[in-house]
Structure formats: structure tokens, C-alpha cells
Amino acid sequence: xxxxxxxxxxxxxxxxxxxxxxxxxxxxxxxxxxxxxxxxxxxxxxxxxxxxxxxxxxxxxxxxxxxxxxxxxxxxxxxxxxxxx
Length: 85
Hints:
Blueprint: H1 2-27, H2 30-55, H3 62-84
Helix pairs in contact: 1-2, 2-3
């Protein structure tokens, strides 16, 4: 059941990224693009989680997953800081 949850989280993140990139091309808002990058990174994080725990449980991917998540959230935080100016 957990495997299905990991995949569904990845699919929802990909769908959100797709909606945000569609919105970016329509409105050209920088925050929409940065949020899209964030959700794409979170989708990659969920895919890495699935690979780490289900596909190759003998390989430890905690550090790459954490780095991807940190980078994704960092991009969004950077965008929110720039929008505040």
C-alpha cells in the first residue's frame, strides 16, 4: 500500500508542475515558473523515494533525496523572497 502512495504522490506532483508550467506560459509570472520547478523537484523526490524503498532497498538514497527536496523547496523560497520585493 505504501508503494501506491509513493507513486500517487509523484503523479500529483507532476500534475501540479504541469498545471503551473501551463499557467506560466499563459501569464509569464515568474512565481508560477519557480513553483513549477519546485513541484518537479518534489516529484523527483517521490520517484527517488519509490526507487529507494521499493525497487532497490539495499541502496541508501536518503542523501540524494534530501538534496533534491532541499533544492526544490529552496527554489520556491527564493522565488517567494524575490516576489516580496
